[in-house]
What does this fold into?
Amino acid sequence: MAEYPYISGGVCSAKGFKAGGVHCGIRKNVRKPDLAMIVSTVPCAAAAVYTKNLVKGAPILVTKENLADGTAQAVICNSGNANTCNADGVQKAMKMCWLAADALGVRPKDVIVASTGVIGQVLPIEPIAAAIPGLAASLTTHGSEDAARAIMTTDTVIKNFAVSCTLGGKEVRIGGIAKGSGMIHPNMGTMLCFLTTDAAISAKALDAALRSAVDVSFNMVSIDGDTSTNDTCAILANGLAENPKINEPEGEDYKTFTEALTQLCVKIARTIAKDGEGASRLLVCEVTGAKDEENAKKAAKGIICSSLFKAAMFGADANWGRVLCALGYCGAETDVTKVGVSFSSKAGSVKVCENGAGIPFSEEEAKKILSEDEITVHVSLGDGNASATAFGCDLTYDYVKINGDYRT
It folds into this structure.
């Protein structure tokens, strides 16, 4: 796959998009913005994927209905309260759409609404209603970072990126912001991610491209094994790049667009994994030699989800037996007598297992390699030619501290 250049601007990198974020009062800390908005100057083709958790935030129900026609023009999102498991949740999610639409001069059904934060607490609509007019008036083509800050919860790093590609001789830009640090084990897309592009592309092709990108990026992330109630990944495409329109999920332009979108989503996914609650290391599991892609994915994600493996990585302990243990129960079909395991980082590489059995290695050298902030575990299965990569983080004392009093 080609490497596409990263550019500045996030969701505002594409033509015709503005964004912003403010503190409206959902959060008690006035230094933390808690309301974000994104808008396109023209209506967009739109697509989204959502959590597979049976308990879904009210905003998902409203957004699904709004996107049924494949069009949207704006995003409104609050942090600090998930608007989930509330009797009046749908009513308030709809109210957020109406308020945003009125302030922006768009149709309420063309607004994507999202919320993130504590589950089961009633969302106060009054501070949102009071802040939306000012927020709408303050949107700028430089506001992506402000919007990215406003959707953060326990995140410590802003997720704000963009890439550029060429379609039919025209430059096309794709930008994205996301939040995600805890309750991360997506089975659809990501925690919250909003993507924008000026590509001319149909809703049908956009949906196919998004699902393809999500499948190898956000669906391959796990921080703690908990699938959130509010996971949403949505994309808006306004066509202002004026490339020859991509009408079907086929052809070279569609392939290029999907590759660029996938690269962006993988970048965001890695950043989310590295910013896991309390994490000190990004863990990447690269599985090769699987019999097919399904088994490769099961193996990679099964290993990255293992609490014992994650704890070992926190201690920079080359306990490769935990890798094989996770491989053995994850459901992947493989011959464990062929498995090889090695660890690598910018400090070097060390092989620790061959043909399903341990081999001599330097514990001192392994400790050095595993003490870096980005670690890759390479697992070769010897069953075929399929491969997959999963992203996670180590399990630290701070994860328990953060989640022990998250609500109170």
In short: DSSP finds eleven helices and 14 strands in the chain. The first helix runs from residue 58 to 66.
